[in-house]
TrEMBL record, chain B:
It comes from Microbispora siamensis. This is Sugar transporter. It comes from the Bacteria. It holds the Pfam family BPD_transp_1. SUPFAM superfamilies: MetI-like. Belongs to the binding-protein-dependent transport system permease family. The chain crosses the membrane at residues 28-51, 92-114, 126-147, 177-199, 228-249, 286-304. Its main location: membrane. It is a multi-pass membrane protein. Keywords: Cell membrane, Membrane, Sugar transport, Transmembrane, Transmembrane helix, Transport. Residues 88-300 form the ABC transmembrane type-1 domain. It is found in: Cell membrane.
């Protein structure tokens, strides 16, 4: 007597089973022959695609955030968003975006409906993202121009501009007054050098200006100097490299002077060693991105309260006293399941006063407000209506007014080439050689230009 | 009747066995069915990705809609690129700093730990394995502090001894040494476990025979213990080579591959291509590494086999 499973199995012969396996394997291989399967150019997410507001809107939206304080901040926005859209469930997830989002975009698997992302990462993945040009049309005039420039790829606006990170000058007021330097005199980079010399003359151990030891951050610092002088960064609007231009030579020569005169402190940003140098008054003049503010705010003990903030010096008489150093936005993957809901959330958090006040004003995460960045929305950058409070660690100066002025003054015209991040291996490394006194300005320019052309431009 | 029946029996058996020989037992297809899931999974997650990656290595593709067949261009780009050879050279130097010292050290330590009279043997065995179970990223961060040029405890101790400071993480030569020190600290316990297991597998009679022949402890160690451990040594050298060829996290956290790419290992270099969505070059890089590491591993195995 045959058992039931024998009867079941007898319906198929061994040959059939093997044939089935063969078909499966061949199918896999045939599928492989088709790879890589590129997607069609994604459709634009038009204004008609956005659902009407209110309780009619339903669904769940999954949004990725960088897994740090920002995630906690944006979670405080969700209740206000839900007050307006009660039937939308927002799932904010903390993710290592730079490692998880690119493969998800390429494969289309496990994609969120929207994601936070650094501006310099977005460009090379633009074709996997929704074109938000139509939806953003009504907000363009209220958005800082350089953010629109950064996020525009081939005429397509591929991100919702979120934060702006202008450069500012942080300085130790006690050190400057001890050296007889008037902070008001720090209006150009030559004056900054003179101040550093005066500080070193007073304290030979001082190395007042930090010289970044990380390839990528060092390159961002140099790019800020370029943007400050010429609007565009490593490439001009035609896509030509600007390394051999006047602005580049001026910035590199200034860095070389800092090195040659022993005025620079070689450490990595926010490393324990750098924080010690800041607290021991070895470093006292820091032209850096706005987000340096978190160090005097929470990382210093001995010199807390001695630090102040001002706008950057200018490179030339009457030149811009601001430049960009970083920034991030929100993107919506072209294969997202609920792109309309993602747009609604980002629109609320970025452009709605109720939304951006939730993000930037004081909250449980930032008791004095989110002051490491400023919004990209012009109407939010009103010096008379600060979103953040003044800090005793910065002597009570009006850091909001200084930051917002810097954000509005960032020269327009900046574009990040798709290979920007990879350039750190060449330009970033050569800048390190310059800061170590092992390469001249001309060598940095010629070798970086050749390497970037050969390895990045010609291969992209 | 019974006689006839008995005579017919061998013919029936022969016919039956012939039929089974030709077609097999009736339930023979169940075996392949039962192992089929393995082959399906292997095809999906083993063979297919490999085939996919091989195809990618001949394509210029950055993950978007456009791609083009470039033949061997990705391979020739890498093979003529100083950065590729630089990363390979960095990995080779790190290998030289780690593997010989770690292998010899582990053999000697295993020999000492296997001695019956050694005190605190259990405590020592536990102590050496602790680094292996400590998270690498956390320890790498600790190394950044310990080896800091200005405020690190190592340079502080060197200063107390009247020696000059060393740029452990920020000079082209010492950065590789610091990475090697981290790996030595982290994985020497694992090396010890392998060698200890090999030593404990050597029969006691061999040592008795050596003692009868008048061999002392040192002679016994080098002439008996070490030769009988050669399979374990070969295994360890091969997996160390594989590990160093794929090394990523150590340079990523300690030095970021710097200064000036001087500590960029082959694993970190590969990551840079993948991280930049240069998937074709990344795939070609992977296969070049596979070929090189396979060649080195086979050479190592052959050397140890011939030493028999």
């Amino acid at each position: 007597m045959a058992y039931p499973q024998d009867q079941l199995l007898s319906l198929t012969s061994r040959r059939d089973v093997l044939r089935g396996l063969g078909v499966l394997t061949a199918g896999s291989l045939l599928a492989a022959c088709g790879v890589p399967t590129g997607s069609d150019k994604p459709a634009a997410l038009g204004s008609s695609a956005a659902p009407s507001a209110g309780a009619d809107v339903r669904g769940q939206v999954t949004l990725w955030m960088r897994d740090d304080d920002l995630l906690k901040v944006f979670r405080t926005v969700v209740p206000a968003f839900n007050a307006r859209y009660p039937n939308v469930k927002v799932d904010l997830k903390g993710v290592d975006i730079n490692s998880k989002l690119p493969p998800a975009l390429i494969s289309g698997a496990g994609l969120p409906d929207g994601s936070f992302w650094e501006d310099d990462q977005i460009g090379q993945h633009g074709e996997h993202l929704y074109d938000l040009t139509a939806l953003m049309a009504k907000y363009r005039d209220d958005t800082i121009q350089f953010k629109l420039d950064v996020l525009t790829q081939g005429g397509r606006l591929v991100g919702v501009p979120w934060d702006t990170d202008p450069g500012l000058l942080y300085y130790n007021d006690a050190v400057l007054s001890g050296a007889g330097v008037d902070p008001a005199s720090l209006t150009d980079y030559d004056a900054l050098l003179d101040a550093a010399r005066a500080i070193k003359a007073k304290n030979p151990k001082a190395r007042p200006i930090p010289l970044e030891q990380d390839d990528t951050l060092g390159m961002m610092w140099y790019t800020m100097f370029l943007n400050q002088q010429q609007g565009h960064g490593l490439v001009d609007p035609s896509g030509n490299l600007t390394l051999d231009g006047e602005a580049s030579r001026r910035a590199l020569t200034w860095i070389k002077t800092v090195v040659d005169e022993g005025l620079g402190a070689r450490q990595k940003f926010a490393s324990t060693a750098q924080i010690t140098m800041l607290d021991e008054q070895i470093i006292s003049l820091v032209p850096w991105a706005i987000w340096f503010i978190f160090i005097p705010q929470s990382g210093l003990k001995k010199t807390t309260g001695q630090w102040r903030v001002a706008n950057l010096p200018a490179w030339t008489q009457g030149g811009a006293r601001s430049g960009l150093m970083g920034g991030s936005s929100f993107v919506i993957p072209a294969k997202a399941k609920n792109p309309e809901l993602a747009w609604l959330f980002y629109e609320f958090a970025v452009y709605d006063p109720e939304g951006y006040r939730k993000v930037f004003s004081k909250n449980s995460v930032y008791p004095t407000g989110l002051n490491t960045v400023v919004p990209s929305v012009k109407s939010a950058l009103d010096p008379a209506k600060p979103l953040v409070e003044r800090l005793p660690q910065l002597g009570g100066v009006d850091n909001w007014a200084i930051s917002t002025k810097a954000a509005l003054d960032i020269p327009a015209g900046y574009t990040a080439p798709t290979w920007y991040g990879q350039a750190a291996k060449y330009l970033g490394a050569n800048l390190q050689r310059l800061m170590d006194g092992k390469m001249s300005v001309d060598e940095v320019i010629s070798r970086s230009t050749a390497d970037i052309k050969k390895n990045l431009i010609d291969r992209n | 009747m019974s006689l006839l029946a008995n005579r017919a029996a061998p013919r029936q058996v022969a016919a039956l066995s012939k039929r089974r020989g030709r077609r097999g037992p009736r339930t023979g297809w169940r075996g392949p069915l039962l192992v089929a899931p393995f082959f399906v999974f292997f095809a999906a997650f083993g063979a297919y990705p490999l085939y996919y990656a091989l195809q990618l290595s001949f394509i210029d593709w950055h993950g978007g809609a456009t791609y083009r067949w470039v033949g061997l261009s990705n391979y020739t780009y890498l093979l003529t690129n100083p950065d590729f050879w630089g990363a390979l050279g960095n990995s080779a130097i790190i290998w030289l700093l780690i593997v010989p010292a770690q292998t010899i050290g582990a053999i000697v330590a295993a020999g000492a730990l296997s001695r019956a009279k050694l005190r605190f043997k259990r405590l020592l065995r536990t102590a050496v394995i602790i680094p292996y179970v400590t998270p690498l990223a956390a320890m790498a961060q600790a190394f950044v502090l310990i080896f800091d040029r200005d405020y690190g405890v190592v340079n502080h101790l060197l200063g107390m001894a009247g020696l000059p400071s060393v740029e452990w993480l920020t000079s082209t030569g010492w950065s590789k040494v610091t990475i090697a020190l981290l790996v030595l600290w982290k994985s020497s316990g694992f090396a010890l476990i392998i060698m200890l297991a090999a030593i404990q597998g050597i029969p006691g009679e061999v040592y008795e025979a050596a003692a009868l022949d008048g061999a002392g402890p040192v002679r016994t160690f080098w002439s008996v213990t070490v030769p009988l451990m050669r399979h374990a040594i070969a295994f360890f050298v091969v997996i160390s080579t594989l590990g160093i060829s794929q090394m990523f996290l150590e340079p990523y956290v300690l030095t970021g591959g710097g200064p000036y790419n001087s500590s960029t290992t082959t694993g970190l270099y590969l990551f840079q291509h993948i991280g930049a969505s240069d998937l074709g070059t990344g795939a070609a890089n992977t296969f070049l590494l596979v070929i090189m590491v396979l060649g080195l591993s086979l050479a190592a195995v052959r050397v140890f086999r011939e030493s028999k």
